[in-house]
Amino acid sequence: MSEVTIPQSTRAEIAVTACSDLFHGQGDILASPAGIIPTIGARLAALTHAPDLMLSDGESTIYAGVPALEHQGVPGGYLPYRELFELIAAGKRHVVMGGAQIDREGNHNFSAIGQHSKPHRQLLGARAAAANTINHRTSYWIPKHSRRSMVERVDFVTGVGRTRAENAGKRAARFHQVHQVVSNLGVFDFSGPGHTMSLVSIHPGVIVEEVIESTGFALNIPDAVQSTRLPNRQELHLIREVLDPLQRREQEVRS
């Protein structure tokens, strides 16, 4: 029997698969991804290893199936804000948030840039980021990994890291779970000393020195660095032909 050849993956497709893997072991919860690649990743998870994931339009509609990125989707249920906040409080959600900054302790910022007393750039705002981080699993997507986005200390704390949650008391720390960070260079978690950021894997084509140079703090590096897994043939078919035939993923992360 001849060996089966898997088509070559782009960096964007590897990032999609890494975002899909964020939802491994997740049951009947609401997936709330922000960004093109996390959205494709959540939908890929629902079509493969996490069929019980609930997917929504991010406003008030639960999808009956798994739509392509450009499609509106078939309504399967109604999720008003009052019920969304009940899901958040019950921990029945996994959000993948973007952000301008994230620091080594998992604090996250998309409120403002600059000195706290006089910021020079206003961003999206706090929204529900703090509530997300203290109530249910939260991951982050950083499409442009750099010293500007991966910083020693965020200018404003929007999402709460583990140490800050513990310092705030039991209510803030009880259900706190900042899970992982996926960037265009690799995958990271907070298994380092004092819940600090550690390198989990680097995407194929990336070297450790590139990650270190692009990070604005001392990153915990394991002795044996793993490579982020490649999407398999089924996943590539779903990404390219079903979920994102217009290749919008390649606009967010270029190979």
Automatic annotation (TrEMBL):
Keywords: Transferase. The keyword Cell membrane does not apply. GO terms for molecular function: CoA-transferase activity. It comes from the Bacteria. Pfam families: CoA_trans. Belongs to the 3-oxoacid CoA-transferase subunit B family. This is Coenzyme A transferase.
